[in-house]
Amino acid sequence: xxxxxxxxxxxxxxxxxxxxxxxxxxxxxxxxxxxxxxxxxxxxxxxxxxxxxxxxxxxxxxxxxxxxxxxxxxxxxxxxxxxxxxxxxxxxxxxxxxxxxxxxxxxxxxxxxxxxxxxxxxxxxxxxxxxxxxxxxxxxxxxxxxxxxxxxxxxxxxxxxxxxxxxxxxxxxxxxxxxxxxxxxxxxxxxxxxxxxxxxxxxxxxxxxxxxxxxxxxxxxxxxxxxxxxxxxxxxxxxxxxxxxxxxxxxxxxxxxxxxxxxxxxxxxxxxxxxxxxxxxxxxxxxxxxxxxxxxxxxxxxxxxxxxxxxxxxxxxxxxxxxxxxxxxxxxxxxxxxxxxxxxxxxxxxxxxxxxxxxxxxxxxxxxxxxxxxxxxxxxxxxxxxxx
Length: 388
What we know:
By secondary structure, this protein is of the alpha/beta class. Helices cover 37% and strands 22% of the residues. The protein has helices at residues 42-56, 80-93, 115-122, 136-141, 148-160, 179-191, 209-212, 220-236, 255-261, 294-299, 312-323, 332-339, 347-355, 370-374, 376-381, and strands spanning 13-19, 21-22, 34-35, 65-72, 101-106, 126-132, 166-172, 196-201, 240-243, 246-248, 265-269, 274-279, 284-290, 304-309, 330-331, 359-361, 365-368. The chain has a nine-stranded mixed β-sheet, sandwiched between helices. Strands 12-13-14 form a three-stranded antiparallel β-sheet, with no helix packed on it. The protein has a three-stranded antiparallel β-sheet with strand order 15-17-16. The chain is globular and about 55 Å long. The two termini are 32 Å apart.
């Protein structure tokens, strides 16, 4: 049998668990989320998640997890008892080291502050809190169900429950947002002392309410000013930017997301979840997606919507699309370890990018320059299989 890729060892393995329900669909959200119609079928969904995981186990026998991320939707709608049963089921089926990062996404409008302690007791050791803004008017314009008070209370509750590692999601470029409001949002987030801040621009995605009826956004110059001001505020207090939209205190980078960006493997379970798994023996990389609608996902025993093998011509682009998002770029040996290809597979676009001043390239490391980071989309397109 001829293999497409040559791996010495498989990449690190993470687990993503998708919980698709939310109280109300936000007009900018293009994630697989569905408004609750009554109570969540919690017990049935946990059963389905664990059965889904069972079906994926043969592809990853013996491989430990480096992280678990429970996303959505709004996973904090689950009861602590359900989260405990879910994580117990994961541990019974896969090796999960005691110090592995286990993240739960939470929205301030759906969490009673006392539940954070119960989530922590169930095994969650990192929270990602979807604040987006601390301005009541801006939050209302985004269709959020929480206000400034609930957002601040959620961060304070995370501290009170013993979470020394939590993230605050913060957006800029919101409808009607001024530079002063953008600065105030960042200052408020910093004052709450999260370990990590995800700071990113609102984008209008197709097939969303905002996509169909776009709101008036700040002009491009103002958005750039907001971005630069927020970056400066975060840097001044010790939050280092390590990825396009990720800022962290020393040692508090998100392990789960780093695994994505370094082209690691990940199992995906839950409605609409995606996975990527390397078969080091067969020399191939497989991707899959699960049934998107919770009804379909819960209805049958076959929950896979699609499976495909990554083509040799695509894997270099996939790696670069992730790894070049990192400020420090990547070690050249990592390319071979994670793709199963020699770096010569992407020599031509690397040389072209270096000539244009978009990357710095040494025998040990490839790193985007400031110019490359400013024009990241242009840089990434250079690695497309059909790029000339």
